[in-house]
């Protein structure tokens, strides 16, 4: 099992979610996060003075999938979240040792 | 009831209604300031707005009104309505003053100054301009025309604020040692908008009520003209600031546009009953433009005014008073020179006396919050209650 963490632009969340659901991948956790990558934030204007917003609002999406679905999931997220402009985000994949569904006690693949 | 009594009742009702509109400016100031400061100081800003309205108004009831007018009395309407209308103004003077020292002033010393301002300092200025006139026959006697207080209220509050800012200093980190200005953006723009429009609506009572009577055809016309001109100046201020911001920065900064509208409203306040329906467009437009130039100018001078009160109320209070001399001078009792004299006499008195009183209060009680209190936010120290606790606590 793998955990896929994707940092995406907030307004792309609906597209990504719909694309994943369509492909039969259900269940995900999202959180509001802030951060920056190579683009280093951007500047805004307040009362005639410019200021730099270092940390831009992003959405972090986490989902656990079995090994076979990893590549497909990454492809779906990449396609749905891409705008082509700087700041589209990143995807991280890590291994997951164990998953337990709290309600039933099911483990691993059955619990995903 | 004979006609005199009917007029008495109508004027009393009109004045009470105008007073109610003016009191709407208390939440107006409170919301505007709460939106422009950081979330960690919002409870304190709201509490200050409430408390100083209360203590200054009560000070005006017990002491100030008698200093200003000699006694409680009015022939044309209920004496209590006449008093309440004047009392509603006091809260504005002190609210103007308190906004610009937000995020770093401690409440109790500020409230102490407010008591003095509401019960003595401001009433003396009213005495010279609208009241018993103790300067009559002296060299300093004022002939300034100031219908609803561009000078008496707005720049008086502004001068006191300038004195306070000079004593208390800027917010920590606002002007870094290496130079430049660190921007501290507004925390809640919708609240700023709500506050600005509450002030705008309150202004109709502020200026309209200052005409003093509505119970005849002539005075009803004067009230309607006054309110229309008041509104026009606000519209012109907003539009001009929008244009200027767009031309200069390609951005329509809403907080500046709202400040521009308020600047236009302050500028019109000295003589909204004197102008034609077109003049307020120019007066309000210049008022708005002054805000756009004054905000960065005060920053350049390292005078930290989080809400723009100096640009809106002080600068435009002066401009509005002079505007009467420019647009409505009749060469007889209204002259540009007379207006200028009023601006200077009231300005010097308000600034010097405020500075001295604040200087003494500062020596005795420390006007400014300690560094770590300021970093943490005044809400914890002064109120014990944060306006937005959910950011840290789930339940």
TrEMBL record, chain A:
Which source organism? Candidatus Marinarcus aquaticus
Q: Which UniProt keywords apply?
A: Nucleotide-binding, Phosphoprotein, Transcription, Transcription regulation
Describe its partners and assembly state.
Homotrimer.
Q: Which domain of life is it from?
A: Bacteria
Q: Does the keyword Transcription apply?
A: yes
Residues that the record marks as modified (O-UMP-tyrosine) are: 51
Q: What would be one Gene Ontology cellular-component term for the protein?
A: cytosol
Q: Which GO terms describe its biological process?
A: regulation of nitrogen utilization
Keyword set includes Nucleotide-binding: yes
Q: Which PANTHER family match?
A: NITROGEN REGULATORY PROTEIN P-II (PTHR30115), NITROGEN REGULATORY PROTEIN P-II HOMOLOG (PTHR30115:SF11)
Question: What is the protein named?
Answer: Transcriptional regulator
Alphabetical list of InterPro entries matching this protein = N-reg_PII (IPR002187), N-reg_PII-like_a/b (IPR011322), N-reg_PII/ATP_PRibTrfase_C (IPR015867), N-reg_PII_CS (IPR017918), N-reg_PII_urydylation_site (IPR002332)
Q: Which Pfam families match?
A: P-II
Q: Spell out the molecular function terms from Gene Ontology.
A: ATP binding; enzyme regulator activity
Q: Family membership, please give it.
A: Belongs to the P(II) protein family.
From TrEMBL, chain B:
Gene Ontology MF: a single term? ammonium channel activity
Instruction: Please name the PANTHER family in this protein's record.
Output: AMMONIUM TRANSPORTER
Which GO terms are recorded in the biological process aspect for this UniProt protein? ammonium homeostasis
The compartments listed are: Membrane
Keyword Oxidoreductase appears in the UniProt entry: no
Membrane topology per record: Multi-pass membrane protein
**GO cellular component terms, semicolon-separated:** membrane
Q: Where is the Ammonium transporter AmtB-like domain?
A: 14-388
Please report which protein family the annotation says this sequence is part of: Belongs to the ammonia transporter channel (TC 1.A.11.2) family.
The answer to whether keyword Magnesium applies is no
| Name of this chain's protein | Ammonium transporter
Q: Which UniProt keywords apply?
A: Ammonia transport, Membrane, Transmembrane, Transmembrane helix, Transport
Reading the lineage from the top rank, the first entry is Bacteria
Which regions span the lipid bilayer?
12-32, 44-65, 77-95, 107-128, 148-169, 181-203, 223-247, 254-271, 277-298, 310-328, 340-361
């Amino acid at each position: 099992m793998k955990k896929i963490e994707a940092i995406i632009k907030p307004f792309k969340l609906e597209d990504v979610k719909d694309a994943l659901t369509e492909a039969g991948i259900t269940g995900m956790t999202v959180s509001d996060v802030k951060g920056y990558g190579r683009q280093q934030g951007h500047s805004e204007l307040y009362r005639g003075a410019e200021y730099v917003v270092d940390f831009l609002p992003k959405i972090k999406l986490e989902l656990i999938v079995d090994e076979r679905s990893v590549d497909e999931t990454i492809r779906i997220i990449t396609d749905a979240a891409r705008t082509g402009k700087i700041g589209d985000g990143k995807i991280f994949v890590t291994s997951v040792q164990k998953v337990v569904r709290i309600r039933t006690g099911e483990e691993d693949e059955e619990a995903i | 009831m004979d006609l005199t009594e009917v007029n008495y009742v109508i004027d009393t009702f009109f004045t009470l209604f105008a007073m109610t509109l003016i009191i709407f400016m208390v939440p107006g100031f409170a919301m505007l300031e709460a939106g422009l400061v950081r979330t960690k100081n919002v409870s304190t800003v709201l509490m200050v707005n409430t408390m100083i309205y209360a203590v200054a108004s009560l000070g005006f009831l017990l002491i100030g009104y008698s200093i200003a007018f000699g006694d409680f009395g009015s022939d044309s309407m209920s004496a209590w309505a006449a008093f309440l209308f004047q009392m509603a103004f006091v809260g504005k003077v002190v609210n103007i003053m308190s906004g610009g020292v937000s995020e770093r002033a401690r409440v109790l010393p500020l409230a102490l100054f407010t008591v003095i301002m509401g019960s003595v300092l401001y009433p003396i200025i009213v005495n010279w301009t609208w009241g018993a006139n103790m300067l009559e026959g002296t060299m300093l006697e004022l002939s300034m025309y100031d219908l609803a207080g561009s000078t008496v209220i707005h720049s008086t509050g502004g001068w006191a604020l300038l004195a306070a800012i000079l004593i208390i200093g800027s917010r920590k980190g606002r002007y870094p040692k290496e130079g430049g200005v660190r921007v501290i953006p507004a925390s809640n723009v919708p609240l700023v908008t709500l506050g600005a429009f509450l002030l705008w609506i309150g202004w109709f009572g502020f200026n309209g009520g200052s005409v003093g009577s509505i119970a005849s055809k002539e005075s009803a016309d004067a009230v309607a003209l006054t309110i229309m001109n008041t509104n026009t100046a606000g519209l012109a201020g907003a539009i001009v600031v929008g244009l200027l911001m767009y031309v200069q920065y390609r951005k329509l900064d809403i907080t500046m546009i709202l400040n521009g509208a308020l600047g236009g409203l302050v500028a019109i306040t000295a003589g909204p009953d004197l102008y034609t329906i077109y003049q307020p467009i120019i007066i309000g437009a210049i008022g708005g433009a002054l805000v756009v130039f004054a905000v960065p100018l005060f920053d350049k001078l390292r005078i930290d005014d989080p809400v723009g009160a100096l640009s809106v109320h002080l600068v435009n209070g002066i401009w509005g008073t002079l505007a009467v001399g420019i647009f409505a001078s009749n060469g007889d009792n209204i002259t540009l020179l007379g207006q200028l004299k009023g601006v200077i006499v009231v300005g010097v008195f308000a600034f010097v006396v405020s500075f001295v009183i604040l200087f003494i209060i500062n020596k005795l009680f420390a006007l400014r919050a300690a560094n770590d209190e300021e970093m943490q936010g005044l809400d914890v120290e002064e109120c014990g209650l944060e306006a937005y606790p959910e950011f840290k606590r789930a339940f």
